[in-house]
Design a protein that fits this description.
Strand content: 25-35%
Number of helices: 7
Largest sheet: 6 strands, antiparallel
Helix content: 10-25%
Number of strands: 17
Structural class: alpha/beta
Oligomer: single chain
Length: about 325
């Protein structure tokens, strides 16, 4: 019989028994409700072993790729080691600063070289720790398949303890601690023809830059639209790089948006959500990636859903 390991304790799973049934029989309490795969309250993560495909039905593709499953649907065929969401296994490693480059007047590109292997997916984020334990979350803009160093974009916030320290005190060759990877906002090549919409404001472009390049690098064939919004054009960056990518890939379209301006330099004037709605009024069948301030992300989750996108296809990892 398969053995289910949970919190360092082994439980034998009877034939045709689900993981949830096994836990209930052994008096182990985990969240659950409907027991039919609808409510998703029994979501778990497989640390070792592969959950059967039937146990992942209805989950986002990124959750499937990260080995999440529903305990009420999981009838294991082999041993599994499992845990609950929010207790994901992450790695905390030391990393050396190898580059600091200003992307605009307020945003620095920080490149880090981990001292040990640090596997991740473009678009996920890490927790960066200062010497005194202060931590902040930053998304990854780099591509691991090309051996790029970890790339973070950090905007200097007025009164921001971490961002001010990074901008003013952190130096090349200094070391920081990073923990991760975290998050389910990344590209999965399961539907190469599916249209993709990526929208972000400010340095929320960081994970989208990684996701977009990852999708194109993996041969995504459907249209890929990327919108980058800012109050003025001074807040935008990677404009030339984005336009060069659009020249290289005919299925990629880049739209820089500014709240204030007169349309010079081919910048579209308008708030990013309004620009997206005017250009892409029907998003049925699209996969959506959103990043930026939580208010923007929340608003666009609603607007893209109302435009026809399935909630299963809307991905975001907002954090403050």
């Amino acid at each position: 019989m398969p053995v289910i390991t949970f919190q360092d304790v082994d439980y034998e799973c009877a034939p045709s028994e689900t993981v949830l049934d096994c836990f209930i029989r052994h008096g182990v309490s985990i969240p659950h409700s409907c027991q039919s795969g609808v409510c998703h309250s029994c979501l778990m993560l497989a640390l070792n072993g592969a959950p059967p495909a039937e146990a992942q039905k209805g989950l986002k593709t990124t959750l499937q790729a990260n080995h999440y499953f529903l305990a009420c649907l999981c009838r294991p065929q082999a041993d599994l080691a499992v845990t609950l969401p929010g207790r994901d296994v992450t790695h905390r490693v030391s990393a050396r600063v190898i580059d600091k480059t200003m992307l605009n007047d307020t945003t620095v590109r920080l490149r880090l070289q981990p001292e040990t292997a640090f596997p991740y997916r473009p678009g996920q984020f890490v927790n960066l720790y200062r010497y005194d334990g202060l931590a902040r979350s930053y998304s990854l803009a780099s591509l691991p398949q090309h051996g790029e160093p970890l790339e973070l974009h950090v905007r200097c916030l007025q009164g921001g303890q971490m961002s001010t320290w990074i901008h003013q005190e952190l130096k090349v060759d200094d070391h920081v601690s990073i923990e991760g990877p975290i998050g389910n906002c990344f590209y999965v090549p399961d539907q190469p023809q599916q249209p993709l919409l990526l929208a972000g404001t400010g340095c929320g472009i960081a994970p989208l830059w990684g996701i977009m390049r990852d999708a194109l690098d993996q041969g995504h064939e459907g249209p890929v639209y990327l919108f980058h919004g800012s109050f003025t054009k001074a807040g935008l960056y990677f404009v030339d790089e984005m336009r060069a990518t659009a020249e290289r890939y005919p299925n990629f379209r880049y739209t820089p948006c500014v709240d204030e301006g007169n349309g010079e330099d081919d910048f579209t004037v308008g708030r990013i959500d309004k620009v997206v709605a005017s250009m892409l009024p029907n998003l049925k069948g699209w996969r959506i990636f959103l990043c930026g301030v939580p208010e923007m992300v929340k608003g666009m989750q609603r607007s893209t859903f109302l435009a026809g996108a399935s909630m299963q296809d809307i991905y975001a990892d907002p954090f403050g």
